[in-house]
């Protein structure tokens, strides 16, 4: 019984250390994933990998939204700059028609 307890404790310790190392690697390299691990540690690793994948998707969406927002501001600025001279020309034409 004591041998099994010791073996399970070693397996848990090894699994936790592998998870910690893999998470540190993930912090440095956003594309890395946790390698397959046995038993419960494998389930934790799979869950963390899934969260990492979803985080990467959300970051890509955020960058896309930021680019589209910048493009929208640029288009609004261009539209404003085009409308200003057109409005001035229209006023001048209306003035000329009245004369």
What oligomeric arrangement do these chains adopt?
A: single chain
Distance between the termini: 108 Å
Mean pLDDT: 89
Task: Please summarize the sheet with the most strands.
Answer: none
Please state roughly what percent of the residues sit in beta strands, choosing from under 5%, 5-15%, 15-25%, 25-35%, 35-45% or over 45%. Answer: under 5%
Count of DSSP strands: 0
State the helical fraction.
over 70%
Radius of gyration: 30 Å
What is the helix/strand order?
A: HH
Poorly predicted runs of 5 or more residues:
none
Could you say which structural class the secondary elements and strand pairing correspond to? mainly alpha
- What's the total helix number? 2
Q: What's the shape?
A: rod-shaped
Quick rundown:
By secondary structure, this protein is an all-alpha fold. It contains two helices and no strands.
General description of the model:
Helices cover 88% and strands 0% of the residues. The protein has 99 residues and is mainly α. It is rod-shaped, with a radius of gyration of 30 Å.
Q: Could you name the key traits of this structure?
A:
2 helices; about 100 residues
List the helices and strands and how they pair.
Elements lengths: L1 H27 L10 H60 L1
Helix pairs in contact: 1-2
